[in-house]
Amino acid sequence: MTMPDQFAGVRYLVDDVQAAVDFYTTHLGFTLRTSAAPAFADVTRGPLRLLLSGPASSGARATPAGTGPGRNRIHLIVDDLNTEIDRLRSAGLAFHSDVVSGPGGRQVLLTDPAGNLIELFEPAH
Question: What is the pLDDT of residues 54-78, one digit of tens each?
């Protein structure tokens, strides 16, 4: 069992490790921690360690059939959702959903180059 002050790790399967690294570090504020591209890399943002596994990685080979990307997502909290949407759109990124509002706040979904979902969430004030 890991200690509570260590990174929380999430594995995303990606088609192109370098494209995923570029996406997360350029657009979403992640920092490259290690890279063994084209098989694997990991990037961090705060306490989140995102493991990017390409087709040649052991993590990708261990995935059961029928569990493709897109069902689960990482959740990133932002201060101003509209500003983030404008910034990412001006960088040429497309969104997977419209903005959705609920009692807890507002959110929008975008995808990384492999189709994995990222939720940008602005909490209600």
Answer: 888 766 654 445 545 546 788 898 9
